Amino acid sequence: MSNIVVLVKQVPDTYSERKLTEGDYTLDRENADAVLDEINENAVEAALQLKEADDSRNVIVLSVGPDRATEALRKALSLGCDEAILVSDEVLAGSDVLGTAWTLSNALNQIEDIELVICGNTSTDGRAGAIPGLLAEYRQIPALTHMEELSVEGGKVTGKRVTDEGVFGLEAPTPAIVSVTEKSNDPRFAVFKGIMAAKKKTIKELSLADIGVDAANVGLSNATTSVSDVAAKPPKTAGEIINDEGDGGKKLVEFLKKEKLI
């Protein structure tokens, strides 16, 4: 049986106010509603569709985060994933993308027969979009990023990437890492049977010691990037009302020219 691993992340809900902690300017996760990142649902859906095409596949969701990240993993399990793994360690707090990718790569070493690693193209909290490329480098496997379609057959993953420059067909041998966009599919909803089944499944929890990661490679103090200062988002200004007295179109064009929008 081959394994498809889906990387998921618990993030502050986009509908709640996101704040930074004073001092180190890291995202305040404790005081925000936490949810499974929306783009991860697209990644889960992609994996489940591949499993439905070949029921010999097993879908494992993997996350790095605090203990409460089990909530996001339960959500993924309720959608139909088979297993879940959480790497949780206090030392990980404040890790940048390099530390996070290194942790994920070492966690993947604990899983045998990986056919594919799937993730979202970028998280809604950090938006770095660097994890797929970093994992490809750490593990020396191909990366197919920003995919809207994908299939796996005969030891090869193929798919379609859509960018501003056009549509590109990509292919690579497995194992590989694939990142998907929000346009790749329509994620399914959890049904009652799936929710109840997810409650009974065990989430395997691992520490840094379990996966062989040195604390010197992760955490805020070892991050290669930092935030030195922040500024509040400027308040919204009132809009400009254009009264149409037969010349509304002309006034609109003049306004757009003044704002250098055309």
Order of helices and strands: EEEHEHEHEHEEEEHEHH
Strand content: 25-35%
What is the average per-residue confidence, as pLDDT, rounded to a whole number? Answer: 92
Shape: globular
List the helices and strands and how they pair.
Blueprint: E1 2-7, E2 10-12, E3 34-36, H1 38-53, E4 57-64, H2 70-79, E5 83-87, H3 97-108, E6 114-120, H4 131-139, E7 143-153, E8 156-163, E9 166-173, E10 176-180, H5 192-200, E11 203-206, H6 208-211, H7 248-258
Parallel strand pairs: 1-4, 1-6, 4-5, 5-11, 6-10, 7-10
Antiparallel strand pairs: 2-3, 7-8, 8-9
Helix pairs in contact: 2-5, 3-4
Write up this protein.
- The chain has a nine-stranded mixed sheet, sandwiched between helices. A two-stranded antiparallel ribbon has the order 2-3.
- A hairpin with a 2-residue loop joins strand 7 (143-153) and strand 8.
- Helix content is 27%, strand content 26%.
- It is α/β, with parallel strands linked by helices and 262 residues long.
- It has seven helices and eleven strands.
- Helix 2 (70-79) packs across helix 5 and helix 3 (97-108) packs across helix 4.
- It is globular.
- It has helices at 38-53, 70-79, 97-108, 131-139, 192-200, 208-211, 248-258; strands at residues 2-7, 10-12, 34-36, 57-64, 83-87, 114-120, 143-153, 156-163, 166-173, 176-180, 203-206.
